[in-house]
Design a protein that fits this description.
Blueprint: H1 3-15, H2 24-52, H3 56-77, H4 81-102
Helix pairs in contact: 2-3, 2-4, 3-4
Length: 104
């Protein structure tokens, strides 16, 4: 590698901002915070839905989602952040689908 090639490589390295990856501890805390925010939002949606229409099905769908958020928090505490992210995403999609399909 010539000196000019090396200078170009160094210039390219300097021009691109370094993106720091999250540490495992930061990733766990971020997933826990996301699940807690989702849990609070689900609680608010559950209260609104129960106010408009009291139904066992409403409690079932949103109650299961609340339990799922708690499971995600526990998975994140134990270091299973990727699994927790997939579980939270799949649970949110399933709950929204059940709300749209099952609940009038």
């Amino acid at each position: 590698m010539s000196a000019s090639d090396q200078d170009q490589v160094e210039a390219a390295d300097v021009s691109e901002p370094a993106r720091a990856a999250l540490t495992p501890r930061q990733a766990r805390r971020m997933r826990i915070a996301a699940a807690a925010v989702a849990m609070a939002a689900v609680g608010v949606v559950l209260a609104v839905r129960l106010n408009s229409r009291a139904s066992v099905l409403v409690v079932g769908v949103y109650g299961l989602l609340l339990i799922l958020c708690g499971i995600v928090i526990e998975l994140s505490r134990r270091g299973r952040t990727r699994l927790g992210t997939w579980v939270l995403g799949a649970g949110l999609v399933a709950a929204l689908t059940a709300d749209w399909v099952l609940l009038p």
